Structure to design on (541 residues):
């Protein structure tokens, strides 16, 4: 009895951060990445592909080592413009969503317009915007990131608000609460899960928008521009290194949104058995 | 005692895609201050609609709804309501849900006194220890009980209960009848109770109003009186049995399953 309980009785007291780092939530995705890189490396070696067909993971560290400063500067450019575009998309998306969620007339009026706008491939808009505001690279990039990502937010907020069950509203309405009180205490929190669902889509879209603009702009900055110049110089390992950096940044942004969702809409999560 | 809730000749129809659906047609109701009316009637006849009219959530097409001698123009803070579908705000704990009306209705209670009141009510309905749980962790019957607390927390003058005990087992239900009696003794209110349970109606109320099938009018009013069964044992006395028979018969008429003629001997 005493023997059995010995390991428990003498706790090594592993710190919380260590426990977290060794938890399944961290180990499993890391293992997946390692397997992925190994398969990639194997694929390139077995086929004996030269660099200009496909670089292999083992070529990448050299590229990062040589250009790490560029990666930091350009990565930051891409990051902040994506975030600013996304913040704009959130503000405008929520505003449009509220207008459409509360007024049936506005919903009927604006919906086709929004859908049409969203249906235009943004790759076609990029050159137009680039020409329209020549030389305003930051502005252009933020604008595209915004344009490409506000739609899901507007739609989710409007649907969330317009499908709010009357029962929810009646709890407060029966006490004579004002419309603002009902919005803040019921409609807004109730819509948060839908909002965050849309934000997860929007964050990836905004990121794509930023990169499109960076690649297309003649004197662009950011990771997209770095990719473009690597292409011009036929530096294939660098091109792949940029792609991986983009993926990493995309993952970072996505999980920031997931963390925000946990904080503000964690109640919507159910334990699945 | 003066009349607190007065409803006269109310008619109401819902506008649906298939055209207007008349729900109430010639409904009368009168509840004295401190009185307690139970409303029974076939499913779908318009009982929940009636509660929404009293609460001021809807306006009738015709007729009048009066509270305190004033026509009802909209919702008011002195009403407490437990809805048939007891929705809880999932992002709040049970305690925070119960305290919600106090965030709207002006109150003299301090924050800690508000908490104390909510905890007290939750304990009354047997939900002690569930204050910090989320609604999703409660059963349907538990949510109904929490919703009853939410209706009572701001000491309403008028309490409207729409089938508040429908999802409860018979024993818990009978406990809560007693609890509701005790609350009414301690904090007098004027009540309207929608129910399908005839025993519940004569146990809690001093008058039972039977509505006809849709469109509903007031078909029958049974005066239970203050001498009504106020103890579970009294539900089995001949007087109570006669009342239940009487109501049973009226419900059958409302459902169109019994001829209107042989007027059952009224117990009143
Ligand atoms: N918002 C609405 N729009 C259209 N029709 C409605 C609406 N609410 C209720 N009805 C209809 O009105 C009728 C009465 O509804 P109500 O909810 O008042 O009945 P009820 O007596 O409470 O029924 P139950 O005993 O089943 O709760 C029903 O036929 C229902 O279909
Ligand atoms: Mg009903």
């Amino acid at each position: 009895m005493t023997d059995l309980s010995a390991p428990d009785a003498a706790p090594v007291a592993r710190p919380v951060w260590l426990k977290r780092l060794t938890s399944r939530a961290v180990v499993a995705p890391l293992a997946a990445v390692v397997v992925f890189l190994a398969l990639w490396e194997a694929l390139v070696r077995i086929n004996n592909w030269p660099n200009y067909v496909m670089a292999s993971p083992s070529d990448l560290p050299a590229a990062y080592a040589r250009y790490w400063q560029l990666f930091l500067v350009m990565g930051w450019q891409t990051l902040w413009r994506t975030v600013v575009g996304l913040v704009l998309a959130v503000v405008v998306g929520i505003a449009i969503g509220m207008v459409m969620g509360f007024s049936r007339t506005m919903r009927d009026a604006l919906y086709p317009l929004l859908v049409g706008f969203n249906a235009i491939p943004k790759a076609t808009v990029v050159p137009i915007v680039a020409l329209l505001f020549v030389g305003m690279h930051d502005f252009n990039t933020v604008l595209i990131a915004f344009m490409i990502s506000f739609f899901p937010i507007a739609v989710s907020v409007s649907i969330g608000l317009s499908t709010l069950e009357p029962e929810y509203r009646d709890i407060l309405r029966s006490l004579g609460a004002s419309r603002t009180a009902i919005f803040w205490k019921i409609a807004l929190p109730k819509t948060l899960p839908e909002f965050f669902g849309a934000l997860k889509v929007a964050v990836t879209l905004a990121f794509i928008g930023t990169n499109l603009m960076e690649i297309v702009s003649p004197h662009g900055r950011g990771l997209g521009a770095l990719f473009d110049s690597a292409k011009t110089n036929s530096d294939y390992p660098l091109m792949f290194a940029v792609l991986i950096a983009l993926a990493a940044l995309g993952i970072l942004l996505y999980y920031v949104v997931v963390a925000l969702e946990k904080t503000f809409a964690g109640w919507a999560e159910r334990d699945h058995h | 005692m003066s009349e607190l809730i007065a409803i006269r000749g109310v008619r109401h129809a819902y506008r649906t895609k298939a055209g207007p659906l008349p729900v109430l047609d010639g409904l009368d109701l009168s509840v004295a201050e401190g009185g307690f009316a139970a409303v029974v009637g076939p499913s779908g006849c318009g009982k929940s609609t009636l509660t929404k009219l009293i609460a001021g959530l809807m306006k009738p097409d015709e007729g009048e709804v009066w509270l305190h001698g004033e026509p009802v123009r909209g919702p008011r803070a002195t009403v407490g309501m437990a809805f048939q579908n007891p929705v809880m705000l999932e992002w709040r704990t049970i305690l925070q849900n119960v305290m919600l009306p106090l965030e709207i209705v002006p109150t003299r209670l301090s924050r800690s006194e508000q908490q104390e009141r909510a905890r007290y009510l939750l304990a009354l309905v047997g939900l002690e220890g569930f204050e910090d749980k989320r609604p999703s962790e409660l059963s349907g019957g538990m949510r109904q009980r929490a919703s009853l607390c939410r209706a009572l927390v701001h000491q309403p003058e008028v309490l409207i209960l729409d089938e508040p005990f429908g999802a409860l087992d018979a024993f818990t239900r009978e406990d809560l009848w007693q609890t509701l009696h005790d609350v009414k003794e301690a904090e007098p209110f004027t009540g309207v109770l929608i129910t399908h349970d005839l025993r519940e109606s004569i146990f809690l109320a001093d008058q039972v109003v039977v509505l006809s099938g849709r469109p509903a009018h007031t078909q029958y009013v049974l005066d239970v009186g203050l001498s009504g069964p106020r103890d579970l044992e009294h539900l089995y006395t001949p007087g109570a049995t006669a009342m239940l028979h009487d109501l049973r018969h009226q419900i059958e008429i409302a459902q169109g399953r019994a001829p209107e003629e042989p007027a059952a001997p009224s117990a009143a």
